[in-house]
Amino acid sequence: MSHPSGASVVAKVGLVLRALGTAGASTSAVARGTRLPRPTAHRLLTDLADQGFVDRDGVTGRWHLGPELFLLGAAAAPRYDVSPHARDVLADLAEQTGESAYFSVLRGRETVCLAECEGSFPLRSHVLHEGIRFPLGVASAGLVILAHLPADEADDYLDATDLTTRWGTAHSRRAVRRRIATTRDHGYAVNPGLVVEGSWGLGAAVFDATGRPTSALSLTGVRSRFDDKRIPTLGRLLLDRAHLLSRRGR
Predict the structure, then answer these.
(1) pLDDT tens track, the chain, 250 positions
(2) Fewest Cβ atoms closer than 10 Å to its Cβ: which of 79, 117, 142, 187?
């Protein structure tokens, strides 16, 4: 994330709303997540609350997305929500594998999880949930989309982005480029517990009619369910279902 000191008010508001996500956050957490001064974050949150865009829990003091955003989102959903056509695919993936299945879309330089279907296996990974965002190159969905962007575009993104500050040295430019190369070889991406230790994920890209990656299917679970023997089988299944979604979108 670039430093927002010179950003417009609208850009700062966007940062604040994204920082709240689905779980909400304290004023201090919003300030840290957006790299805004705490007084600025508090002022923006207070102004947004006056308009109904955020709401504050009177007990915990945490800020949450507000009712006005729900109304606006409902109005925008018919135009932008692409998740309904993926839900049967997610259910099929979860049933066949026992793992939790997810559908994430590309928004700017991030992936946003729009839909999920829990698997039947009792031990689950809880890294992903609806509404969570990750930068490209982080988690299997963000890695597989980045790997299938035009090479010069992916290189420009990595040259301009430092993922290590938040995500650690496993997300250095060199490490991400190695995983991109492996992803391009296999077709699907593997996240070997790099976001949360022991939580593995696989992702396959979904393409639009021009061949550009616009979204991704992913499976997540514990390491014991993603051993070296099973990963190729899960990867082929993901690629097959991602191809199905790509055809539906054309």
Answers:
(1) 445 555 788 989 988 988 887 678 999 999 988 889 999 999 999 999 999 999 999 999 999 999 998 888 888 776 666 677 789 999 999 999 999 999 999 988 999 998 999 988 766 666 778 888 899 999 999 999 999 999 999 999 999 999 999 899 999 999 999 999 999 999 999 999 999 888 999 999 999 999 999 999 999 998 999 999 999 999 999 999 999 999 986 6
(2) 79
**What residue type is assigned to position 59 of the chain?**
V
Domain ranges of the chain: 4-77, 82-248
CATH class of 4-77: mainly alpha
Please report, as a single letter, which amino acid is at residue 165. T
Its sign, for the CA torsion 240, 127, 170, 233, is negative
Class of domain 82-248 (CATH, top level): alpha beta
pTM confidence score: 0.77
